[in-house]
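Comment thread on ticket #2218

A.B. wrote:
> Attaching the input chain for the structure job we discussed in standup.
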Amino acid sequence: MPIYLPELTAYNLNFPHPNSAMVDPNGLLAFGGDLQPERLLRAYQNGIFPWYNQGEPILWWSPAPRSVFYPEQFQPSKSLRKFQRKVGYRVTINQDCYRVIEQCALSRGLENTWISPDIQKAYQEMHCLGHCHSVEVWEGNTLVGGLYGIAVGRIFCGESMFSLATNASKIALWFFCRHFHRSGGQLIDCQVMNHHLQSLGAQELSREHFLNKLSQQPSNAALIDCYQPQTLSCEYFE
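C.D. wrote:
> Ran it. Output below, let me know if you need it in another format.
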């Protein structure tokens, strides 16, 4: 059965309303356009993100329901707390965003990742402009895990995470939830629910509820101090 989608043009940054997204596949909204910062920022402000395979047209999505974390509710397991006390990973903010994005792509295999060179370049540019942020996990001086995403006011739209050592991505999420909450953050978007996210405590929101939260984010709600390059305190696992 053919799929009929709106096509985005190079000179129009407006998206169709997310409520017009398809049910199957869940959330497919439009195709085309580009990955310029203005369009990407407009997309995230409206609950939309790009997801497509290399060599295909850019596809834009807004799935329903939406998978999210409430940062104040994240509770690491006793075993994860014990592990961090023993291993003592160091966790930082925005100290190597470029490499986190690259590692997220590599961790999925060059043939299977949707984080193509074009996607990497686009989000690295968003980082330079202050919109894309990363969390890094270090074992000594070696980067062993992390995550990255886009900030929209007091909402953090998570894009991907990776782990090269035991529990590294879980600890990145744990420390970031604590730090984000203390900085005034309200919600972490993780797009579509899967078993791993559910096991970590992710919940589902209706599209309407999620879009309403996005619409409440004023332009001056940026959590500037939250994303300053820094090392996160070890008190988070006490």
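A.B. wrote:
> Thanks. Noting for the ticket: The chain is about 30% helix and 25% strand.
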